[in-house]
Amino acid sequence: MQLRTRRSALISDHIIPGRESSTQVIAVSSGKGGVGKTNVVANVAIALTKLGKRVLILDADFSLGNLDILLGLIPQHTIEDVLAGTHTLDQIVLKGPAGVSVLPASSGVPHLTTLTESQQLVIQEQLEQLTGEMDVLLIDTGAGISPSVTFFAASADETIVVVSPEPTSLTDAYALIKVLARQYREHRFKILVNQAKSPREASEVFGKLDVAVDRFLHVAIELVGAIPYDDYVPMAVMRQKAVLEVFPDAPASHAFRKLAQQIIQWPKPDLPKSSVQLIWQRSTIHAGH
Length: 289
Known about the structure:
By secondary structure, the chain is of the alpha/beta class. The protein has one domain: 3-Layer(aba) Sandwich (Rossmann fold). It is 43% helix and 17% strand. Strands 3-4-2-5-1-6-7-8 form an 8-stranded mixed sheet, with helices on both faces. Helix 1 (37-50) packs across helix 11 and helix 7 (167-183) runs parallel beside helix 8. It is globular, with a radius of gyration of 18 Å.
């Protein structure tokens, strides 16, 4: 994928690192589906709001979005309408549990799998207006290595890659990191192990990925936490609720709160973590002259 230097190749000049913005932008990605990535986003968002943060979630799986279903929300309009020009992002925002704001994606719309540059520009410009009043923007990317996934992951302040103990999850997570490292020169990643049966298993899962990444990709990965395997999670999903809402004392709920407390302490990066951000910072400097 060729790197673009035009402004439309970035999410927003307001939220890209290196600009004057207090909004913390975090992309949550995974190499494969089924690892609980969207569940992580929903629960972390609620945990952050309970810590006093204003949180906006962008469901960036534009063709197969299901965040609204997970949270029991019924959108009248979605990102598809925004890209069609009939609505704006602020017109489709939903209020979710605990006051979380949600930008719902479409479902079953294959042509939105890969955004065009003009579509990226639409999202970019309108996100700038919405994030001005937000403390945290969580981007729930699609799974895999499509250009839309890697675009959002590379543009964020931080990228959290969610993995599970399944061998295929590790293989696909490695593939995602490889694409981001080689095509976007992204050099740091945060790893979250989901559905871990024990702290030891979480450590072993991370260790396997760390060995492969260190040997072949030479980038830094950091274990930021583990969400335990918890029967309360699927019970909450069946109710179309976040586990933090209906089972606040569940083991997974405690883990999500711990992760949220950690996230709000992450410092704003001084250096760009990818070539997308580096290109933007350089173009900003030149524009200033």
